[in-house]
Automatic annotation (TrEMBL), chain A:
Protein name per Swiss-Prot or TrEMBL: ABC transporter permease
Membrane topology: Multi-pass membrane protein
InterPro entries: MetI-like (IPR000515), MetI-like_sf (IPR035906)
Transmembrane residue ranges: 12-34, 78-99, 105-121, 128-150, 162-182, 214-237, 262-284
Length: 293, 268
């Protein structure tokens, strides 16, 4: 702190501290505290605010625990998000390995650039592309029908569509951390393992993956968090039977008109995500400093 | 080459083709559907080639209105996040080891918070203060996490800063403010431009956070998502196609510039 003042003088130093304070206190801490406050209070008409019924309780959170449908959707969102993270990892790992270890400088540059193209256009349009592709009378069904792989059109909207769209949307968040991690692995380690007779499978399992652990953990954590908090993919690619937890939250706010319960649900989602992030990082022994590269 | 190697090679080739097909086929189909007469955007069946959807996009006043809203939001987000993000990076780098890693965790925490939660938290706080959803809240909510990206990019650039430059300027009699303005800021300029660019993109592309704090204002992403629900026509595809075209041209220009500078480096 004193370094800051020594370097920039009183005026600028104070300005910088004020800006950072306004951000962390006003835009990060205060909103979250208010959300917790909302979550713990009952939903009352204005006349009863501050009255005898306006007391803190865990009712809104217990409501989620006791309401069977919402609870089921919550757990489904958790495991489906984990599944999205796992599938995204499977899709990205070979590409990340190839880019980091085998590709030439120009190949890497071109592929990385090409990879970013879908990500310059926004998530809604990326999801829309899948919405068009997976439509009941859409191109994918027409293609599979013409090949004779399926006999009648498949309803892709639902869990399958959501999974495909989400994996697509978060590829980059998985690929870049893993690529960065594998890139720092010395080629001679792989050669040494091969010379000692290790199979390809074993080289990856015992040499590459342990080395890239931090990158893999980072990619998985981000993908899980983004998937669990996603609204657009389930809203567009889902079906009534594949509702996502964020859709329930949205309904409490803008259709159910119970902001307190909505805030409680959002709080549960936040705690879940933070828990998954911290536990995953602890297991992989990665510090938060390494997460955001 | 052994049989096992050949199988491995074939599998890898198949993977590469599948990967890029997965990545680009949806975009290609979305783009091509722009030219199909069919009212619902698709490429099967092909009902005839047309350019009518570009006209439809041109005359879709709601689309332009929402694009304008997105630009306004992006503008205010940029002028909010650049000063705060830079200040955060400077405060962070002036801290010592323990305090620094703690502050770092605090400062990246919005990136680990789901977007919907950021939107909700902002919404309930400002309702308590009597402010409803709208452009102002969209800017506040988006800025709260876009600052993190700016902070990270400026911090990365600061690590390459040589403090003797500042000492030299101070030794020559410059005030601390002058040193900041004439030495540090010019050094940070490339990172500030890159961060500003990223902030604009992040702002325009955001949906999850914006959805909760938008009030009655409709930025582009919300408009498109609503269109999908209420009457999607290939006019949206025309917009997507234009955005893809700009992106591809930008990528090609970037690659040409990169090769030129690489060639220049090799020549030196």
């Amino acid at each position: 702190m004193s370094d800051l003042y020594r370097r920039f003088g009183g005026g600028l130093g104070t300005l910088f501290l004020a800006l950072v304070g306004a951000w962390l206190a006003g835009m990060v801490l205060a909103p979250n505290v208010m959300m917790i406050d909302y979550a713990l209070r009952p939903n009352l008409p204005p006349s009863q605010l501050g009255g005898p019924n306006d007391v803190y309780s865990l009712d809104n959170i217990l409501y989620l625990a006791n309401e069977g449908v919402h609870r089921a959707i919550f757990f489904k969102t958790v495991w489906a998000s984990a599944l999205v993270a796992f599938i995204t990892f499977l899709v990205c790992y070979p590409m990340a390995f190839w880019l980091a270890q085998n590709a030439t400088v120009n190949q890497t540059a071109i592929v990385l650039l090409a990879l970013t193209i879908p990500f310059w256009i926004n998530e809604v349009l990326r999801t829309l592309a899948w919405y068009i592709l997976l439509a009941f009378r859409g191109p994918l069904n027409a293609f599979l029908l013409s090949l004779g792989i399926i006999d009648e059109p498949v309803r892709w909207y639902g869990d399958g569509g959501v999974l495909a769209g989400m994996t697509y949307a978060y590829i980059l968040f998985m690929l870049f951390p893993i690529y960065n991690a594998i890139e720092s692995l010395d080629k001679s380690q792989i050669e040494a393992a091969r010379d000692l007779g290790a199979s390809t499978w074993r080289i990856h399992w015992r040499v590459v993956i342990p080395h890239a652990k931090a990158g893999i953990a980072t990619g998985c954590v981000f993908t899980f968090m983004l998937a669990a908090g996603s609204y657009v993919a389930p809203a567009l690619l889902g079906a009534p039977g594949s509702r996502w937890f964020t859709e329930i939250i949205y309904n409490w706010f803008f259709e159910g008109g119970d902001w307190n319960r909505g805030a409680a649900y959002a709080l549960v989602l936040l705690v879940l995500c933070l828990a998954v992030v911290l536990i995953t990082l602890r297991i992989a022994r990665v510090s938060l400093t390494e997460v955001a590269k | 080459m052994s049989a096992a190697d050949r199988i491995a090679r074939a599998m890898f080739g198949f993977y590469m083709v599948a990967f890029f097909l997965y990545l680009f086929a949806p975009l290609a189909i979305m783009g091509i559907a722009t030219f199909n007469t069919s009212r619902f955007p698709t490429v099967t069946p092909w009902r005839g080639t047309t350019l009518q959807w570009f006209d439809a996009l041109w005359s879709d006043s709601g689309m332009w209105q929402s694009l304008w809203t997105s630009f306004i939001v992006a503008f205010f987000v940029v002028i909010t996040v650049l000063p705060i993000g830079t200040a955060a990076a400077l405060v962070l780098t002036s801290l010592h080891a323990r305090a620094r890693s703690f502050m770092y965790a605090v400062m990246v925490s919005p990136l680990l918070t789901p977007g919907v939660v950021i939107g909700i938290a902002t919404l309930v706080l400002w309702r308590q203060l009597g402010v409803g959803g709208g452009v102002f809240l969209i800017v506040v909510a988006q800025a709260s996490f876009i600052i993190c990206y700016v902070m990270l990019m400026i911090t990365a650039r600061l690590q390459r800063f040589d403090p003797t430059q500042e000492e030299a300027a101070l030794g020559l009699g410059a005030s601390k403010f002058m040193v900041f303005r004439r030495v540090l800021l010019p050094f940070l300029k490339p990172a500030l431009i890159a961060a500003g660019f990223l902030a604009i993109l992040q702002s325009i592309e955001n949906y999850n956070t914006t959805l909760f704090v938008r009030g009655f204002d409709t930025p582009l992403t919300v408009y498109i998502a609503t269109k999908v629900r209420t009457g999607l026509t290939p006019a949206v595809n025309a917009l997507a196609l234009i955005m893809i075209a700009i992106t591809v041209l930008g990528a090609i220009a970037y690659e040409i510039a990169r090769r030129r500078s690489a060639a220049r480096m090799a020549a030196d």
